[in-house]
Amino acid sequence: MDVNEILSGLYSEQGRQNPYPWYAALHALGPVSAIPPRPEHRTVGAVAVGYDLVDAVLRDPEWRKGSPPGWQEQEILRTFMSSMMFTDPPEHTRMRAVFAKTFTPRRLGALEPVIARVVDTMLERMAESGAGGAEVDFVADFAYPVPALVMAEFIGLPEADLAWYRQRVDWIDEYMDVAGKTPERLALANRAAEELRVFYRDLIAHRRRRPGEDLISGLVEALDSGEVDLTEDELISNLIVLFNASFVTTVYMFSNGLPLLLAHPDTVAALPGDETLARGCVDEVLRMQSPVHFLARAAPRDTDLGDVPVRQGENVLLIIAGANRDPVRFPEPDRFDPRRDGPPSLAFGVGLHFCLGAAVSRLEGTVALPRLFARFPDLTVTRRPTYSGSLFLRGIDKLFVSTGG
Ligand code: HEM
């Protein structure tokens, strides 16, 4: 198979449901393959799946995020381009420093009891919905509300606004998918950005009058005292991007992870009370079923990537979910092994843009999984799970289970 056939297969409905055979086919071609020019990927010159190569590009600060053409005309792209996730140094460095300071070990420690409380509330709710053998949607009752409520408390979003907010997150994520750049999706993403900007402007004004313990209050205070080098517009863009980045990713960590874990009953039985195993399970779930599949970087100059020439400014598609199953780095890559040693997976990226919330998600997973299986030792999946259909953010949207009680 050549690279065009593989990419067509990957973008097909079948590929979206299960992209892993296509990633294996890319590995068979080598760590990186040139993409022959085609209208749909005009600016993408190559696709990389080799762990070492993807890792090296992400660690090299010269490889850039770049800026999409005409970004000034679209509210969503203006928001992205004034946030850390989509900018290069020096803007990235300045903005990330402001937020990195707020993700302190103290704040993370304070989050642990919040996570435990939210998890226990949701487990209680699952028990009620599942009483008498009724089917429960694990996504609706656990995988979605746990990260949403934890992040809402962490950032300082009113719980009552979460359903409204989620619709806007979906509009933005649909636009960000590899095949999402349609005029309709762009219009919805622009609308989401406009409405979220108004939402945050009001929330900031409110926190200014009545500060709390949350992240927004802390950031507003730092902004007003002139302590940090950030405008209010940039604060808003970063809050939008931060919440978006935190949200569906962590939902998918739970929903993608559950069937994988349940296929290993001995591990599940050993999870309650074994924190090291819980940490290993979280990392192995993220390696094997990464919520984020693709990243991209633009070449700083004409260069060779492996034996593939790439032109200055051309993008390289970095399939981190494929790199996480590189047989060179992860022997028997399709085997679940929570005690695997070897390099860290690239599920959270690496280098300058390494996920700012990695510790938060890992903590959510480590606290939640042992509690989940202690409460429901006989949890089973009752129907075949369905994936969202997005390749960029890949995950199970509906997952019916029986709680066994
Ligand atoms: C399992 C859950 C998560 C996964 C798989 C994930 C994945 C990622 C990845 C792959 C990147 C790198 C993007 C790039 O290099 O272009 C990233 C960046 C980022 N993530 Fe996460 N993330 C998760 C949870 C979170 C959470 C909970 C938060 C917030 C609390 C968060 C906030 C961010 C931010 C702000 C960035 C941008 C950092 C920068 O550009 O410097 N993420 N994430």
Automatic annotation (TrEMBL):
GO terms for biological process: antibiotic biosynthetic process. Keywords: Antibiotic biosynthesis, Heme, Iron, Metal-binding, Monooxygenase, NADP, Oxidoreductase. The keyword Cytoplasm does not apply. Pathway: Antibiotic biosynthesis; mycinamicin biosynthesis. The keyword Protein biosynthesis does not apply. InterPro entries: Cyt_P450, Cyt_P450_B, Cyt_P450_CS, Cyt_P450_sf. The lineage of its organism: Bacteria, Bacillati, Actinomycetota, Actinomycetes, Micromonosporales. One of its GO terms (molecular function) is heme binding. It comes from Micromonospora halophytica. This is Cytochrome P450.
